[in-house]
């Protein structure tokens, strides 16, 4: 009988222990609930466990020798994987979520850990990737988060999420040294809809109101359903209170059209309370309290309106609201008139024509400055009908001048940029000329320098159509838009009007004087006529005359005149 020495017995025992450990590791590898993938230093797959097949659908024989690219979903870009492997190289491991693709093509979300094994010399021996499918868990978490933070009926943020977003908006506004506004919106008489038509109809009204409110807000604003028939909105990056007023009016106006719900035609309005930050509260609770208070004032005022919490802001807003209400009826009540400022021919000192200026005299509020009502008309979309009226009225008045003098008088008519951008300005002018019989060559349409600087091909096409009718184009207030003088050759302009601010400073002999000289010289070289505005003294008149300015206007000759007095001015001059 051969007896084994102790050394050999020790080696056998060691091998048995190693085999037992390998069997244990193999059992763990095979029975692990998480997918395991082992790759070599070149990232070629050496082995996968059964859980890998369960998760991915790939058998071991299909992936051994391949790279893990067979699992890629193509959702992540190359930069994602470059960062992943850079982390593995730097730290020896990476852990995170990524999208993979099963053998069937289905994309799923996986939570993966990648570790690197190195030999005694620090060289990579293999990588071990362990991952699990977390799609269902993530979907469940997202659904739970959505249910917790969003209103199930309107799909808007609910009260909890809105308060969080309001706090974030205030923090961002503070960091950016900006203002924010909180609007509390309550539907007027909504309880009657529920009581008379039922909650199903009421719910559909809420859904439609939410949709309309969202369309009325600016991009970046947050709307939420606060509860019941109450909505809230936070406005960020506010430049002026006028911007808040515009949004408030948009919210009121978006409910003007009846709601059509299951054969029911429903009319509903809303009331809005507004608080501003900073000023109306230093925290979320104070802003909410004050906007709610302002909402109560809006309802007390008769509903279908908005109120600011700050009395001074509210008074200003209500004044603008009253002005807007009166402006909407101004044409119907024939409240607009025109006055005419004479334009003088410099060489002869005779009247060459006039600039028509719009005036509004409201039956309740009296005379309203154009600086107040013209921007409001543009904002309300009334500038197009008002502009059409102005064109016809000015052309009719100019046609009445034809018998007054042997040399026909020209009429200059200012048009709003929005008339050109949004309307058919050439078509409106053509209608005015046909209705009044005024020859088109006696009409000058005045546009702003800023309109041409910001214009596209469509605007230039409209301006060329005006010239095709036979009318002239004047660039008003030239020099205030900071355009290069050489830029003029690209525009269809016949007349340049030197801004009154340059004329006022011309006698000082500084930059204003040099700029006027340059405008006149360049304009003449391009075949244009030059008009000097705001001439109030003989010295200013002589300055422009010496530099060959063609036409001038201003209080040195006459303020704007009503039609009868303008005719007297013409016959006397």
From TrEMBL:
Coiled coil: none annotated. It comes from the Bacteria. It holds the Pfam family GGDEF. Residues 21-67 form the PAS domain. Residues 92-146 form the PAC domain. Residues 320-573 form the EAL domain. Residues 178-311 form the GGDEF domain. InterPro entries: Biofilm_reg_signaling, EAL_dom, EAL_sf, GGDEF_dom, Nucleotide_cyclase, PAC, PAS, PAS-assoc_C. NCBIfam families: GGDEF, sensory_box. This is EAL domain-containing protein. It comes from Magnetospirillum aberrantis SpK.
């Amino acid at each position: 009988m051969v007896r084994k020495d102790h050394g050999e017995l020790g080696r056998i025992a060691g091998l048995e222990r190693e085999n037992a450990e390998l069997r244990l590791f193999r059992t763990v590898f095979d029975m692990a609930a998480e997918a395991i993938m082992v790759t070599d230093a070149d990232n070629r797959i050496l082995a996968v466990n059964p859980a890998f097949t369960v998760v991915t659908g790939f058998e071991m024989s299909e992936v051994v020798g391949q790279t893990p690219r067979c699992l890629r979903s193509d959702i992540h870009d190359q930069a994602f994987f470059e960062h992943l492997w850079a982390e593995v190289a730097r730290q020896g491991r990476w852990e995170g979520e990524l999208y993979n693709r099963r053998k069937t093509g289905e994309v799923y979300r996986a939570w993966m850990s990648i570790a690197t094994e190195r030999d005694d010399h620090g060289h990579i021996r293999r990588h071990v990737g362990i991952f699990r499918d977390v799609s269902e868990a993530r979907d469940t978490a997202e659904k739970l988060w959505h249910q917790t933070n969003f209103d199930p009926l309107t799909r808007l943020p609910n009260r909890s999420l809105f308060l969080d977003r309001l706090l974030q908006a205030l923090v961002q506004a503070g960091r950016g040294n900006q203002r924010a506004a909180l609007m509390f919106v309550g539907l007027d008489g909504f309880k009657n809809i529920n009581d008379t038509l039922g909650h199903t109809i009421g719910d559909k009204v809420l859904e439609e109101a939410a949709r309309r409110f969202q369309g009325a807000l600016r991009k970046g604003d947050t709307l939420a359903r606060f509860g019941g028939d109450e909505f809230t909105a936070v406005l960020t990056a506010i430049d002026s209170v006028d911007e808040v007023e515009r949004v408030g009016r948009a919210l009121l106006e978006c409910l003007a059209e009846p709601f059509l719900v299951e054969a029911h035609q429903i009319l509903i309005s809303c009331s809005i309370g507004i608080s501003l930050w900073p000023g109306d509260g230093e925290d979320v609770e104070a802003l909410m309290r004050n906007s709610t208070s302002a909402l109560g004032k809006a309802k007390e005022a008769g509903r279908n309106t908005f109120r600011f919490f700050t009395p001074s802001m509210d008074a200003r807003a209500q004044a603008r609201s009253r002005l807007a209400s009166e402006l909407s009826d101004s044409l119907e009540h024939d409240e607009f008139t025109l006055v005419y400022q004479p334009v003088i021919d410099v060489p002869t000192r005779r009247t060459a024509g006039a600039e028509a200026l719009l005036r509004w005299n409201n039956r309740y509020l009296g005379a309203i400055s154009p600086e107040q009502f013209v921007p409001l008309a543009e904002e309300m979309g009334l500038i197009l009908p008002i502009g059409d009226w102005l064109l016809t009225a000015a052309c009719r008045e100019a046609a009445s001048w034809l018998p007054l003098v042997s040399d026909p008088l020209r009429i200059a008519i200012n048009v709003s940029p929005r008339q050109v951008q949004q309307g058919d300005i050439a078509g409106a002018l053509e209608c005015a000329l046909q209705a009044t019989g005024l020859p088109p060559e006696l009409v000058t349409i005045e546009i702003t320098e800023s309109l041409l600087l910001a214009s596209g091909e469509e605007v230039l096409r409209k301006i060329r159509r005006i010239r095709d009718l036979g009318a002239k184009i004047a660039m008003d207030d030239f020099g205030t838009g900071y355009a290069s003088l050489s830029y003029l050759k690209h525009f269809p302009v016949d007349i340049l009007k030197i801004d009154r601010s340059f004329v006022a400073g011309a006698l000082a002999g500084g930059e204003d004087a040099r700029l006027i000289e340059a405008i006149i010289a360049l304009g003449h070289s391009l075949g244009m006529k030059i008009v000097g505005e705001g001439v109030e003294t003989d010295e200013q008149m002589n300055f422009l005359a010496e530099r060959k300015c063609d036409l001038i206007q201003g209080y040195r000759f006459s303020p704007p005149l009503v039609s009868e007095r303008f005719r007297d001015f013409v016959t006397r001059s």
